Amino acid sequence: MVIHLEEFQKETLTGYVESVPPQRQYLLQKFMPEQTVQDINFAYNVINGAYAKAASITGWNASAPLRDRKAIEKAYGELAKLQHSYRLDEKDLFSFEKPRTPEERQAVIDGVYTDTDDLIAGVDDTKEWLRAQTLYTGGVNYSDPRNDVSIEFQYEMPEANRLDVSVPWSDPASLPLTDLQAANEQFKKTNQRRTPIEMHMTSVTEAYLLQNEQIRTQVYGQSNGGRILTPADLQNVFRALKLPTYVINDDVIVMEAAEMVDGQKVIIDKEIQLLEDNKVVLLGDNLGNTMIGPSAEKGYATGKFANPIIHQNPPGEEVIVGESAFPAFKRPKAIVILEVA
């Protein structure tokens, strides 16, 4: 058995899982840095006001509302437990136990490490998705297609901090600088005259700005002959108007989703954009934390855990990697969401 090896025992594998650095940069981590907490029900307590304020909490189990506090606590506990697993099947075990060459046996071992690295990245990706849901939408809307559990809540974000433009930015004659100045002023109004430190958009939204006549005129004057705008031009204009620096977030993560095929529900992997196109989000500082809580799998300690499991029928081995994490949005007034479609 592969996971009988010393390096794949629970404590050793957990140490490995904890030591692997992130596979990529997570843009939102600096806005909600990780903070450990020993509260077992920390995820629910984040939402009910112990760590941050929320306007509403709704849960569904197989389309029926969850009305009991215990049921909602359990649902949020499951949402906070970010875990993924992979299995070694009979073919893998045969290659390990009866290899044709030493290299074939080593390939199975190397595969365990590779798959474990992917599981670790999946946990980190899901934490970033939760941060993106929080900061880019003002709440979390989550559906578990395997267990038919859905959870939705909104933080107490000022409604005035959700803005729409009068002319879509896809129109070159729109007025994005005017729109952004209005969003910037709204941010200052709800944050004691403080200004946002960054604004995030996708490259699709940026492309509208690079074709915009108001910005072209600001850069080149009235007789500009349709000259090309660059991202550097945009940053310079924003700086001159005392608008925050813009950052492109085109990151996607892969999550499970349900799809109906011939009347049957099928679980598929689906790419999810962290930030929607046609949206600009102005972000302040000290927004909150990504709370890292305890888990039973780790003896109620905090941090990532690894759990190797042996299956008998059919024969197989499984490794689960996870972490209990949930975003606590402590300053929901410190974001402004501008819809530009």
What features would you describe in this structure?
The protein has 341 residues and is α+β, with helices and mostly antiparallel strands. The chain contains nine helices and 17 strands. Helix 4 crosses helix 5. The longest helix has 36 residues. About 2% of the residues have low confidence. This is Minor capsid protein E. It comes from Domibacillus enclensis.
Low-confidence stretches: 53-59
Mean pLDDT: 86
Largest sheet: 6 strands, mixed
Binned, the helix content reads 25-40%
Q: Element order, helices and strands?
A: HEHEEHEHHEEEHEHHHEEEEEEEEE
Distance between the termini: 56 Å
The general outline is elongated
Tally the beta strands. Answer: 17
Structural class: alpha+beta
- By DSSP (H or I, 4+ residues per run), the number of helices equals 9
